[in-house]
Amino acid sequence: MASAEKPNLGTLAGGEPGQRLAGRVAIVSGAASGIGAATVALFLREGAKVLATDIRAIDDDKLGAGSARAIALRHDVASEREWRNVLIRTTEEYGRLDILVNCAGINVPGGGPPENQDIENITMDDYRAVQAVNVEGTLLGCKQAIPVMVETGGGAIVNISSIAGWVGVPGVVPYGASKAAVWQITKSVALHCARAGYNIRCNSVHPGGIHTPIFVPMTDGGTDDGPEAPHVPMRRYGEPDEVAAAILFLASDDSSYVTGASLPVDGGLAVT
Amino acid sequence: MARLDGKVALITGAASGIGHAAARLFAAEGAVVVGTDIQFIDDDVWRDDCGTEALFLHQDVTDEAQWTAVVARAAAHGGGLDILLNCAGINGAAGSDPPPQEPDVIGLDIWRQVNRVNAEGTLLGCRAAIPLLREGRGGAIVNISSIAAQKGWPVRTAYGASKAVVLQYTRTVARHCAESGWNIRCNAVLPGPIDTPMINPPKGKPLAGGDGRAGADHVPMKRYGDPMEVARPMLFLASDEASYITGVGLNVDGGIAALTVD
Fold this sequence. Notes:
Structural class of chain B: alpha/beta
Helix content of chain A: 25-40%
Strand content of chain A: 5-15%
Order of helices and strands of chain A: EHEEHEHEHEHE
CATH class of chain A: Alpha Beta
Number of domains of chain B: 1
CATH class of chain B: Alpha Beta
Number of strands of chain A: 7
Strand order of the largest sheet of chain B: 3-2-1-4-5-6-7
Distance between the termini of chain A: 43 Å
Number of domains of chain A: 1
Shape of chain B: globular
Oligomer: heterodimer
CATH architecture of chain A: 3-Layer(aba) Sandwich
Radius of gyration of chain B: 17 Å
Number of helices of chain B: 6
Largest interface: A-B, 50 and 55 residues
Shape of chain A: globular
C-alpha cells in the first residue's frame, strides 16, 4: 500500500500543511497570553504575517517560529484611536489585512479573583470595565478592520465569545453578558458584510474551560485534568492550542462558506 | 505531513455530492478512504478521485446487517477505523413526481423513507462504528444535519425532521462517548444550500419554483455552496485539530444561521 497512488493534495486542500495562511496578514489582539498567544504561534507556523497586540508587553521570545514575520504592539482595544493606529501600522508594514482575531478579553477589571461579580454585588464600574474591553474592543476591531479588508478583496474575522455567553454564569455576570454581546455582534457583522458583498466572513468561537490565565480565577479549585472538571463530558479542560486550531479553521479558506456561525470548543459542555 | 495521515475513514454517500467531495479531500489529506453508497460509481473514477488505496462498497445504510459487514470490511481494509462520516441522505424530492411533504398532506411512506435513510442510517452507522473506533487511538464521527433542522421548511417536512434528529442524536452520541471515556468525538455540520445532485438534480426538474431551488436570494452570501466547502469543515472536525470539540453542530450555510433562532 505504501506505493499506492494518492490524489494531488495541492489542488484540493486549503493549502499545504504549514502554509495554510501563507501570504496572509493577521491582527491578533490579546496576544500576550492564553488563547491569543497560542493563536499567534499557530498563525506564524502556518505562514502568516502577524500583528500581535496586547495592553501588556508581549515577550518576543514567546512568539516562537516565524517571529520574524511578527510585530508586537501595545494596544488598548477599548480605544478607537488606538485601533486606528494599529490598522495604519498594518497597512504601512504589509499593505493589507486578511484576518482579524479579537482575543483580548478580561473577566474582572484588573484581573484577580471574581469576587462580588454576582447580580447583587456587581458595581457598575466593574461591569462597564468588562464591557469596554470585551464588547467595545471587539466592536471597534470589526469596525476599523472592515474597510481595510475591503480594500484588498476581503478577509475573515474571528471573535472570541464563550460558553459563558450562552449559559447562566451567576458568579461572573459582566463576563457572561459581554460574551453574549460578542456572539450577537458577530452575527450582525457577518450579515452586514455578506449583504454588502464585501467577501468578509465573521464567526465566533465559544471556548469552555481552557487552561488560560483568565480561566484560572473563575474556578473554585484547581484546573487540573480529571476530577476537577466533572461537569465536562470530556472530563478535562482544554488547552489554548485547541482553541487556536478552531480559530485557524475559521480564519482560513477551509471555512469559505461559513459565516455568522458559532463554534463551541468546550469538550462537550454545551450538550449537557 | 498531511492532516489525516495514518487515518482510516469510512464515508457513506460517497458516490456524489458532499460525501464524494469528502472522499476526495480525505484521501488527498492522507486518509485511507472506504466509501459506500447505494448508487454505484465507476471504478476508474473512484480511483482517480480517491487514490488506489481507496475502497468502494455498495451499501444501503438502512440495512442493519449491511452495516456490520461494512465496518468489518473497512477496518480489515485499512487496519482499523478512525473516522466515520455519515453523508448518505435523501430529501424525498427526487424523481419526476415526488410525493408532497407539506404537513397537511404528507404521507407516512415518504416520512418513513426519508427518516430511515437520514436518521436511522446515521444511528446505525454510529452504533456499528463506535466499537471499532474505541479500539484505535480514538476516533471521530461527523454527521450531516442541515439548516433545515433549525428552520421551518414546509416542502421538506420529513427532511427537516430527520435532520433535527441527526443533530440531537449527534449531541447524545458525543456525550455518551466522552462520559464513557472512549476518546471518540461526534459532531455535525449543518449545510445550507449546496450545489449537489440532491438540490440540483442534473437529470431532474429544471431549477425553478418556490421550493428552495430557485436561487440563492435567501442566502446572505448570495450563492450556493460547493460540496468541497462542506467537506473542508468535515475535515477539520474529523481531524485532531478539533480535539476539544464534541457535540457541536457547525453551520456551513453562507450565513443563514445568523438569521435563525435556535
